[in-house]
Amino acid sequence: MRVVFVLFDSLNRHALGAYGGTAVPTPNFDRLARRAAVFDTHYVGSLPCMPARRDLHTGRLNFLHRGWGPLEHYDISYAALLGKAGVYSHLVSDRYHYFEDGGATYHQRYSSWEYIRGQEKDKWKALVKPPLERFKAMYHPLQHPAEPTDGRLNYMINREYMKEEADFPSVKCFDAALEFLATNRHADRWLLHLETFDPHEPFHAPARLQERFQTGYDGPILD
Predict the structure, then answer these.
(1) Among the ranges 67-71, 86-90, 144-148, which has the highest mean pLDDT value?
(2) What is the pTM of this model?
(3) Residue 21's domain spans which residues?
């Protein structure tokens, strides 16, 4: 058994070529669709984020009895079942919700995990006195934090550490997943769960991709 389970957040059916979307080119998804089963009548159970993950882990609907929350001690996770069956499971993700109040315990069910830092409001880099005036000038007023504890400030700080395309969390996720495959290419009985927060908002994309889709907007950063 060798399984690569890839999970993206906030994919829009209308933007995917496999479902007739034409808004943006999606060549890699289209190539995957040609080599895979494409589901045309799938209905989601619990949304958003962690409720949906609990559905995936346990095979039952979370929203029938509660909202956002962790895996409970009585939940039977697919990752834990794999471990009991002697199958190694590894999680690579930049979804910071796995590591905050209300989302914890999911990653503990895997044999190992790798957490890529810096997505959205992740409390990543320690900056006691952030350059608030510079941020105010850089970002559109709609994106300004309402107070010092507003998570949008964390996002502005995180972006300071994403200078090159290789610095983006989603890129680092794939790099880590490729490292797992290279390291374990001769092994058997494993599952790799690769999960990226993108294309979830805020919509911060590398410059080369922004250049391909000109909008005419010429103001402060508005992600």
Answers:
(1) 86-90
(2) 0.94
(3) 2-212
